[in-house]
Amino acid sequence: MKVGILGLGTVGGGVVNVLKKNGASIERRTGVNIQVILAAVRDIKQDRICDTSNIKLTEDPFEVVNHPEIDVVLELIGGTGLTKKLVETAIKNGKHVITANKALIAKHGNKLIQSANKNKVRLLFEASVAGGIPIIKSLEQGLSANKIESLAGIINGTGNFILTEMKEKNRDFDDVLKEAQSLGYAEADPTFDVEGIDAAQKLAILAAIAFGTELQFDKVFTKGISNITTEDINYATELGYTIKHLGIAKRVGNGIELRVHPTLISNEELIANVNGVMNAVLVKGDALGTSLYYGAGAGEEATASSVIADLIDIINNQTSNHILGWKSQEKLTVIDTESIDSEFYLRLLVSNMKGVLAKITGIFHQYNVSIEELIQKQIDENNNAHIVIITNKVNTKDIMGIKAAIEASEFNQDNMQIIHVESLD
Length: 425
Fold this sequence. Notes:
The protein is of the alpha/beta class. It has helices at residues 10-30, 61-65, 82-92, 102-118, 135-142, 157-169, 173-182, 191-194, 197-211, 230-238, 300-316, 356-366, 396-407, and strands at 2-6, 35-40, 56-58, 72-75, 96-99, 123-124, 148-154, 221-222, 241-252, 255-266, 278-285, 289-296, 333-334, 341-351, 371-378, 384-391, 394-395, 417-422.
């Protein structure tokens, strides 16, 4: 099998290194010798993390996708502009394509997969979600006998690193973000990571695979972690919870919930103990029940592992064009955010005057919302207090009504913090 690579950075170089290290054992398992014969790079003179002595290098990426001898193109450069044209060209030229590009798949995957089906080639993207964790193959193959009921994942290592450091070392968000940038976990512009866009792209892919629907990235409710404070972390800990930034996809009747947001989960949940830059996805199937998939969500060889696994799938003819290409897609409507039922964590800053608590509970009574747990603590010399509440399961629209009523009151001193509380088992 002759392979062309678009991009020899961290992942592309990792693929070359892993193939060199494990090529003999891969050939024993598959009976096929995988050869990387051509790679497109920005600068041929630049130093590489891999040996390129047996690989022709070019600065023209179209030379790769138009090369007559190449069977499979590995798209490892990212982006959705030029990259989309390159992938479209490779597919039209009858070449299989493997990509680690979650933005490309989330935004353009529906049409690209249709094109791959039409041209009788495969478009595979295991490495686009959760790095080295074989979560897409698990959903497609290992769990194929199950009707997937829900999945919840820590699918962005940067956000998980920040929340872990905030909890374990009592640091604030801005401080940890600067460290994440210095360590290379976060970009100079961290918006995609900390505001949940990266996770939303990955969740859209996982949900489409799990539920057999089209990709629906534009319908994922997305909220980041930039407004999470050390107070929230500490109050959650006191109540027996950990705050994680989760992507959640769930069947509810004839619809599905698609949401990415900070979430309080019990310290007893397995996923609550996934820390640092690690990723994990919890999947609930009707036959197996709950299973957890854990591992490195990024990195040179971890992501290369998933790319090469897709190569081996093509050799073994194990997959079709992912189940997104099936014509018998389920028609599941994405549920509007305000219609979602959930428990909630609420943090209020109020004047600590007589009768305030009674007024707050009166507002909750108006919306028929029960309070499961409550903490009240005076926090400053101005007699202001934090009131932290865990509600019972309630409609999101009602919580927003409570928020509006409290923030309009004379005793309120700040915007109310609202965080979902989930039980994942």
